Amino acid sequence: MSRFDRLPPAFIRIFCPAAAILALFAFLCFDAARDTSPTYDEAGLMLGGYSCLARDCPEIPTANLRLAEMWVGLPLLAFKPRIPDTLRNEKTLVTDQSSSELGPAFLYDPANRTEAMLLASRMAVTAAAVVLGWILFAASRRLHGLGAGLLTLTLYCLNPVVISNSALATTDIVTTLVFTLTSLAYWRLLHRPSPAWAAAFGISLGALLATKLNGAIFPAIAALLFALRWAAGPGPLRAWRLALAHAAAAVVAYGTLWLIYGLRYAHGAPLDASVWLQPGTELSSRFIDFCRSGHLLPEAFLYDVHSFVWRMVRLSFFMGRYSIVGFWSFFPLVFFFKTPPAFLIALCFAAAAALLALRRNSAAAARVDFYGMAPFLATGAVYGAVAVASRFNLGIRHILPVYPMFFILAGAAARFPFRRRWQAAVIGAVVLAGSVSEVLIARPNYLSYVNEFGGGPRNGWRLFVDSSYDWGQDLPAVRRWLDARAARPGGGRPVYFSYFGNDFIEHYGIRALLLPQDYERRKMVPGSLEPGTYVICATMLQGIGATPVRGPWMRQYEEAYQAIGRELPAIPSGTDRWNEAFAIFEFLRFSRLCATLRTREPDAWITPNVLVYELDQKSLEAALTGPPREMADTASILGSKPQ
After folding, report:
1. How confident is the model at residue 1 (pLDDT cuts 50, 70, 90)?
2. DSSP helix/strand/coil, 532
3. Is 85 exposed, middle or buried (0-12, 13-18, 19+ CB in 10 A)?
4. Mean of all residue pLDDT scores within the chain
5. What is the CA radius of gyration of the chain?
6. Which of 196, 208, 595, 632 could form a Cys-Cys staple with 636, CB 3.0–4.6 A?
């Protein structure tokens, strides 16, 4: 008898398939993580997390709170990395330098192992994603059987949005995991109000509040779960036991928050009053002032809250439109366009099974456990509603805590009452084959994935940008493409490159003339644009990068462009006045060029979100001096007032 024959049947039926699927998922994440440049936030988050753990580095705020950052920074302790020279004499929380500046200086320091450090931090997030996958599998199996558990796990592990975010050193997957654990712990507490579950819920809630500011919505989730539990009948439980359990959990949560922040109000001397002067909402300012006056919460926590609030107003782009107040339809439609059709099919069958389960005397009656799904349904519903109402349209990653609800719901498709077993097998095979094919189509550009309903990955730049599509992840691919181009006959034409990201381009050996960037690190070299190859990242092409000229090409931009163009020849070249005027002219010129390029198809793609245009003299002159192909008024930006 072999050792495998001695394994219990349950182990073979349950653990082995789930472990195999999760192993495949971990490999896909590793494959996605090993050959992409850091996305915009990664370097800053890595430094922020490391700074909270290491003794040789002052704390760096990033407006992302602390726990998830610490998880991202934990693997870096093994590397003993060198910190930027500007931090060596700091003794307190750094507030005068943005993590967007310090993070890349830390990651790309020649003394540090850039690629190894990045991969290690990314794999820490992958580990959290594996844990989340197992939790979803276990929950779905308990609710609706082994088939449902495997269906949920397969859809989770073969989802490009999940893979892409699980392969990045960011906080969103960890936040999703902590949200899920907190909801499950609270649901358990409502059924078994014991000291153990009060402590478990308190720890998870404190961890959530130290992970992401959106943890502040959990009281609404808790209220909904409490109402559902009470409506189902409290049973033998007494109100006083629940009240004591809630009070104990609140104390534990408060203590957990302080513990994560080091059990100290300030890291060194308290911050100067000047750092709190940026405008925020009246409510947030009063809350922060009240907590500061009594040292009720850690100063670093309050500063993260303050930093996040005053940065909330941002220009967003969605399906050809621009807004500074966001779009209510952004998250629902982006979710739809970035969800594999196989997942949508599973959700349709799950919805049908749920409807049949609600019908009396139905063959499917009582087969869908709605009550057991309550923690996932409540979290997804409340979080999704808040996300839509907030209109904070930075990227699909901001609604990742909603995804567990959909994966659990999709598992309920296994409860659909098929008349024949072969019908279930065919649908299951279609869902599996569809999920695998979408992963193969997306690989290795999972972040840029767009399904067929959105026109495919190469059409995504017309729908949305930033962290939903183009987040600065493709510098290695750009370098390889440019090297291959240079080796071809006629490859000596000038190459211009506009990058959306926060990395040191020179680290990747990219040889190109740099157009306006985000983050801007160029040394200005005045000159004219020549015919050649123009490589532009999608976020820059749509005018969403952090440049002085943003959004659509507007009348005031055209007037300024023409005026400065007339004035430049009369200003002595090389003077400060000329340099200042040319810098403004350069941003206007680039924006006008992008406005023209948005109206035509790219000549090539390096990746779906890095577009290539071949411009001859005629097309370049038409873009820079001809009638504008695009002309908008300020009022065309939703939330703006006409000028």
Report:
1. very low
2. strand
3. exposed
4. 89
5. 26
6. 632
Tokens of 215: 């943890």
Residue found by looking up tokens 């456990």 in the block = 369
Structural contact between residues 394 and 467, judged by C-beta atoms closer than 8 angstroms? yes
Spatial CA neighbour of 454 closest among 536, 605, 333, 542: 333
State the residue for tokens 């500061």: 292
Task: Check pLDDT > 80 for residue 365.
Answer: no
Which burial class, exposed, middle or buried, applies to 104 when counting CB atoms under 10 A from its CB (0-12, 13-18, 19+)? buried
Question: Could you give the angle at the alpha carbon of 141 between the alpha carbons of 135 and 143, nearest 5°?
Answer: 100
Beta bridge partners, 613, equal 534
Q: Which two tokens stand for residue 179?
A: 């949200």
Is 110's pLDDT higher than 50?
Answer: yes
3-state secondary structure of 470: coil
C-alpha 404/C-alpha 133 separation (Å) is 9
pLDDT above 90 for 207:
yes
In DSSP terms, 317 is beta-bridged to 322
d(CA 287, CA 373): 35
Residue 364's pLDDT band (boundaries 50, 70, 90)? very low
* Closest among 556, 635, 557 to 591, alpha carbons compared: 557
H/E element, 495: strand 495-498
524 phi/psi in degrees, rounded to 5: -65, 125
Write out the two tokens for 71. Answer: 């998880």
Instruction: List the strands of the sheet with 610-615, edge to edge.
Output: 513-514, 495-498, 532-537, 610-615, 604-607
Alpha-carbon gap, residue 22 to 28, rounded angstroms: 10
Burial category of 299 from C-beta neighbours within 10 Å (exposed 0-12, middle 13-18, buried 19 and up):
buried
Q: How far is CA 47 from CA 38, 83, 199, in A?
A: 13, 9, 31
- 237: helix, strand or coil: coil
**225-234 residue pLDDT tens:** 999 998 887 6
Nearest to 448 by CA among 516, 500, 390, 384: 500
- Amino acid code (one letter) for 352: A
Q: Residue type for 80, please?
A: K
Instruction: Report percent pLDDT > 90 for the chain.
Output: 67
Q: 496 - beta bridge partners?
A: 513, 534
Three-state secondary structure call for residue 240: helix
Locate tokens 């219990």: which residue?
Answer: 8
pLDDT surpasses 70 at 591: yes
Burial label for 231, CB within 10 Å (0-12, 13-18, 19+), is exposed
Q: Report helix, strand or coil for 614.
A: strand
Q: Give CA separation, 614 vs 259, 427, 491, in Å.
A: 56, 45, 12
Tell me how far apart the alpha carbons of residues 221 and 210 are, in angstroms, rounded to a whole number.
17
